[in-house]
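Technical appendix A lists one of the benchmark inputs used to test multi-chain prediction within the project. The record comprises two sequence entries:
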Amino acid sequence: DADVTQTPRNRITKTGKRIMLECSQTKGHDRMYWYRQDPGLGLRLIYYSFDVKDINKGEISDGYSVSRQAQAKFSLSLESAIPNQTALYFCATSKRGTSGNNEQFFGPGTRLTVL
Amino acid sequence: AQTVTQSQPEMSVQEAETVTLSCTYDTSESNYYLFWYKQPPSRQMILVIRQEAYKQQNATENRFSVNFQKAAKSFSLKISDSQLGDTAMYFCAFMNGNQFYFGTGTSLTVIP
């Protein structure tokens, strides 16, 4: 079974629609992250959360919001989707603390297309 | 702010040959961690290798090894005996204990 899951895996929507991407993890990690991947730009951080009551903006948070419903769940919302939010979205988790063992574990990604 | 630079957008290598992917980073911190991730066409992100900045010895994982030059802020990945399954996008990443910073990636194609 996958440790980090994302739903949906693919989604096509229209401009102006509200979209929620969901992430769940069974790794017991405290930290969760949302990234978007665009060709030539790599992965850019949207939001991150170090525990249920901690939410932080990343590099490109405008147009997005998040909710940490539980330690294992972290959802990303696009309140009013626009075409330049078309991208591949990844959820990731990591353990607390500063250690070389604290690599990020990624979900399978959600391909979002906004028409 | 931390930045990670991968200056080679695309590379190719013959099967069984060796290839080196470059990565440089900019930071004022002394304690940090570096990673290489692989993203095959399945789009799953897979950890290839990690390096702790306080360790002088270069990390090695089977056919994958790094050349970590702390003073030069360089962290290159060497893939030996390249295999067709190594065809993927490779991302270099820097972690300072709180956030991860990724490079823009290098697309590697292994040619039969």
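The longest strand of chain B covers residues 88-95. Chain B has a mean pLDDT of 93. Comparable benchmark entries are summarised in Table A2.
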